[in-house]
Amino acid sequence: MGRIISIPISLAESGIIYTGPCNLCSFLVGVDGSHNPTITIYDGLDDTGDVIVPSVTYDATEKGLQGAVFQWLKRCITGLYIKIACAGTVTVVVDYNQYKVSV
User: Fold this and answer.
1) 3-class SS at 21?
2) Could you say which DSSP state residue 8 is in?
3) CA dihedral (88, 45, 18, 22) positive or negative
4) Distance between CA 31 and CA 88 in Å, rounded?
5) How many domains is the chain partitioned into structurally?
6) Residues 2 and 85: beta-carbon distance below 8 Å
């Protein structure tokens, strides 16, 4: 049995995280201290895919990193897309792993 290797990627704006089948493992949100970001994560290549992580607004005044680590991996068929809405500076680190679909 092979090891599952997760791949972190850092984003500062909306965009495609990965194209193809994968598992969402976790995400962390770093804020600028004054602008509350809203994050939504989709199974897809844009914001019309199925919602994997519903829209959540993070409090920019909270100290430290915010986000989620999932007890069960969130499987995505098409890919991962993140929508970031923030008037200030935000960095989101998304941790995922790829998987192959058996036919």
Assistant:
1) coil
2) E
3) positive
4) 8
5) 1
6) no
Structure tokens at 100: 């192959």
> How long, in residues, is the chain?
103
* DSSP assignment string, 28-80: EEEE-SS---EEEEEESSSTTSEEEEEEEE--TTS-S-EEEEEEEEEEESSEE
Which two three-digit tokens encode residue 31? 């804020």
In angstroms, the CA 50 to CA 3 distance is: 28
Q: How far apart are the first and last CA of the chain?
A: 19
Q: pLDDT for 7-65, tens place per residue?
A: 778 888 999 999 999 999 899 998 888 899 999 999 999 999 999 999 999 998 887 77
CATH at 76: 2.60.120
89 belongs to a structural domain: yes
Structural domain of residue 84, as residue ranges?
A: 9-98
CA-CA-CA-CA dihedral for 72, 20, 16, 23, to nearest 10: 10
